[in-house]
What we know:
Strand content: 15-25%
Number of domains: 2
Number of strands: 5
Shape: rod-shaped
Order of helices and strands: HHHHEEEEE
Distance between the termini: 78 Å
Mean pLDDT: 87
Largest sheet: 5 strands, mixed, barrel
Low-confidence stretches: none
Number of helices: 4
Oligomer: single chain
Helix content: 40-55%
Amino acid sequence: MTIFIIVLLLVLGIVLILLELFVLPGITVAGIAGVAMMLCGIYLSYNHYGNMIGHLTVLGSVIFSLLALWLALKSGTWERLMLKTEIDSKVDKIDENLIAIGDEGVCLSRLAPMGQVRINKHIVEAKSTGVYVDEKTKVKVIKIVDKVIVVKPLK
């Protein structure tokens, strides 16, 4: 029964570590639990069967871990899970003749610090000066930098 527990701990540990590497981001409970299970399995083999079997367990678990990692990478399963789409859209350029410095408008969404503003009957993305501006607040264009409209709230 002890051999079954040792093998189960090692296999579950490797599975959890593989899940940690390929599915779950960061260092989470799965990775820590996987390492803990493997260490418990190795400890049990040393404790119950001695140094020789303990050394063989360490060697076997390292080889099995590397083999499982190689098979997981080679199988192509991860290729089906990966996002391969490319984003080729562009930011809309604003016509400098439509909006000028000094024009006034109203916020359609909260500027935190970016949001939508209606200026001269055109809906555009705008950036506040750093303060949050609530929806339906009147704003004034204070500058246009690299096609980004910067506005400040009117009081």
